[in-house]
Structure to design on (131 residues):
C-alpha cells in the first residue's frame, strides 16, 4: 500500500523528510536523542520551539507562510518545512492532529497521534501518512 496524502499546505522550505509526529519542542529533542527522526507539527512556532526545530527532520505549521518564523528558520537550517497547512487541526492536549473529512481524505476524518509516521515534501507543501 502506498502513502496516503494527508494534507497540503504552502511549500516553505524545500526537501523531504520522514519522521514521527511530535507537537512540542521538548518531545522532539527527547525522541531525537533516542535516534528517531521527528517532524515537529505546530499551529505556529515561537522562540521556545527553536531547539525542537533545530533537531527535527522537518517542520509543519498550520498558520504562517513562506515569510513566517518557521519557514525562515527551516530555510536557515536547511530543513523541509510546510507552512499554512490549514487542513491540519492540532490538539496539543490530546497529542494528536486531525484532518476533517473531505474529498482528499475519502470522506472519513483522519486522526494521527504523537509518534505516528509521516513524510513531508517542503517544495510541494504535501504531508503524507507513513514513510
Amino acid at each position: 500500500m502506498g502513502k496516503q496524502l494527508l494534507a497540503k499546505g504552502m511549500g516553505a522550505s524545500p526537501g523531504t523528510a520522514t519522521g514521527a509526529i511530535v507537537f512540542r519542542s521538548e518531545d522532539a529533542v527527547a525522541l531525537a536523542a533516542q535516534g528517531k527522526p521527528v517532524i515537529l507539527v505546530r499551529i505556529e512556532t515561537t522562540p521556545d520551539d527553536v531547539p525542537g526545530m533545530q533537531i527535527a527532520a522537518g517542520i509543519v505549521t498550520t498558520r504562517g507562510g513562506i515569510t513566517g518564523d518557521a519557514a525562515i528558520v527551516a530555510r536557515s537550517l536547511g530543513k523541509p518545512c510546510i507552512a499554512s497547512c490549514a487542513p491540519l487541526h492540532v490538539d496539543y492536549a490530546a497529542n494528536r492532529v486531525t484532518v476533517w473529512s473531505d474529498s482528499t481524505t475519502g470522506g472519513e476524518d483522519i486522526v494521527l497521534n504523537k509518534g505516528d509516521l509521516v513524510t513531508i515534501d517542503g517544495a510541494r507543501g504535501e504531508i503524507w501518512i507513513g514513510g
